[in-house]
Amino acid sequence: MPLSLRFVVPLALALAAIAYAVVPLVDRLTFQWFVRDLDMRGALVVQAAQEPLVELMRSGPGARQRVLRYFQSIVQGQRIFALGFCDRAGKLLYATPAYPDAVRCVPGERREARNTVLELADGPLHVSGQPILADNAVLGELMIVHDMSFAQRRSEDTRKYVLWLFAGIAAVVALITVVIAEISWRGWVAGLKEVLSGGMLLRSPAALRRAAPELGPIARDLQALVSDMEAERLARDEGQTVWGPDALRRILRQDLKGDEVIIVSNREPYIHTRRKDNVIEIQRPASGLVTALEPVMRACSGTWIAHGAGSADRDTVDRHDHVMVPPENPAYRIRRVWLSEEEEKGYYFGFANEGLWPLCHIAHTRPSFRAPDWEHYQTVNRRFADVVADEARTDDPIVLVQDYHFALLPRMVRERLPKATIITFWHIPWPNPEAFGICPWREEVLEGMLGSSILGFHTQFHCNNFFDTVDRFLEARVDRETFTISYGGQPTEVRRYPISIEWPPNALAVQAPVAECRKRVREMLGLSPEVKLGVGVDRLDYTKGILERFAAIERLLELEPRWIGNFSFVQAAAPSRVSIDEYQNLDTRVRQVAARINERFGRPGCQPIVLRIEHHDAAQVYELYRASDLCYVSSLHDGMNLVAKEFVAARDDEQGVLILSQFTGAARDLAEALIVNPYDIEQSAAAMHLALTMSPEEQRARMLLDAARMRHRSRVMARARAARRRAGVS
Ligand code: F6P
């Protein structure tokens, strides 16, 4: 039954029942009113007629004729049906012609009026017998007869009016009910949709109460359910922690009880460079590692040991090679380590980036392993291990070793500081044993890493690959139940730690509103305001799938010509590892392909690809994110990819669409993105078209859910820990 009928039918039935009960009542009441009216009228008539009547009756001969004429005049003047006079003996002495036979005289001396209603075949008659007195004696009764058929007619009319009145009320009430029900229903459906799409799940309890008081309880229950499910998921996912400031601070301070924190990475978080005009400026490197760990260091203080690669780095350290950072608000110190050009070439460009990097990324670039590079790699790892021992103020510091540049460092630090807690994080994927097995120094690399107390990867898949690799190449005890590997009597816990960004990101605080960013960026690029904008932000690296991304843009323009002149994609690409051939070739190819596509589809004032191969600082990157309609992360293989997370974090307007490669760790965390296989050009082009035509509501729903996954992490983590405790899992 349609919704409105569900309200109207019972209402109509109830009103019909009330009308059925009310009509006879109203009928009876109005009849009684008429009778009472006629009773009073009889009394008035007799009051007026008493004296003249008695006089006429005693007026001698011809009295009868005079009385009858008088009666006739009363009947006509008062609109009475008939008049008669009965004497005390019950004899009808005078009567007008219409006086009915049925109205009989009753003998007796009555001083009170008597009123009756006679039901005759022609209709009811009201008879009022009024005593006529003379000299204080009763002469007889004046019989006043009223025809009551008018009352019957009026009563029928009344009944009709009452029925119409009820029908009218029913119609008006039904109409109001249907309109209110319809409006409420629509409100409910819209509210419920928002609840189910996730929108309301993200609001605070107070905002929830304000937004939808009636749906508040449902949304709250759903919030609890989603959080519980997430908590359970995390609790099930043994060892999962977000490698963010909160989690790390908690691990360091509570779980590890450590006071002294030392980070070791190749890339430093602040690079001092000397410009051509001799002014020293500070650069923040385009590095996911730095993005993730710098907030941790700001929170924990400590020492960050890194390669001093900036042209003015030596000019800005003290005599112990230290410099306090961040420059505007110093919170921790960097200890710079100096490398010769040859060492950097062998260790960084050679073994790390031409060997391990392509080895671990399945991006179809062959790794190169050269013995001299390996020599330098060992030397540099040893140098850093010495610096760690030198910097340590206690014999049990917490040492956070970062990435594939330092596979040997954990064991070397363990030899120097046996009581240290060494947490190594591998920021890139870990391949399967067959792929890893081609490394000539595979056992040494694995042995070095197993000097760690804890070893972290982004995904469980990479952890499992690592277990398989150790199983294959080392005499070690691999326990997949407890996620622990024991080698040489020393245990290493292997855990999945999906790296994340600080929330809300620092860079967001200085950003203009989205509308202004959109305007500014379009003006800067010479685009008209209605042009849709896509963005890609990467280091210029072959693993990022930039050429595949451009191919997808080209295909989009072939398939959907409406975007020609109406869509532009800004590719911000930070130059990276420029002295490696593979990277130089990539640089050339990227420029060529962008130029070819622009030539083919460029229109005055709108190039399909705006290529910016230069360093962008965080503020510029966040402005681009906020100005764009879509962000495409097309990595061919990526440990996590923080650009994807930054894009979501940058969109506090809850708009914009993220297109994300299925080969990134982030694809596991940001399930509401449009997930694509970047090698599948048709699919990626279709995803771009979908993103460009997606409704604002759908964009909001997707953004909110992904943002919630990141933002609510800390709260969910607390629930997860509670759930684990309840389940007895330590
Ligand atoms: O992705 C691995 C990684 O070390 C990241 O942590 C970092 O974003 C990037 O490579 C930096 O590369 P490089 O220091 O060689 O410029």
Task: Characterise the protein shown here.
The strands form four sheets. The chain has a ten-stranded mixed sheet. It is rod-shaped. About 1% of the residues have low confidence. It is of the alpha/beta class. 6-O-phosphono-beta-D-fructofuranose binds next to α7.
Q: How would you describe the oligomerization state of the chains in this entry?
A: single chain
Q: So how many helices? A: 22
Strands side by side in the biggest sheet: 10-11-9-6-12-13-14-17-16-15
- Most strands sheet: 10 strands, mixed
Q: Could you tell me how far the N terminus lies from the C terminus, measured between alpha carbons in angstroms?
A: 55 Å
Q: What is the overall pLDDT average?
A: 89
What is the helix fraction of residues, given as a range?
40-55%
Radius of gyration (CA) equals 49 Å
The tally of strands reads 23
Q: How much strand? A: 15-25%
Give the overall shape, derived from the CA principal axes. Answer: rod-shaped
Weakly predicted, low-confidence segments: 236-240
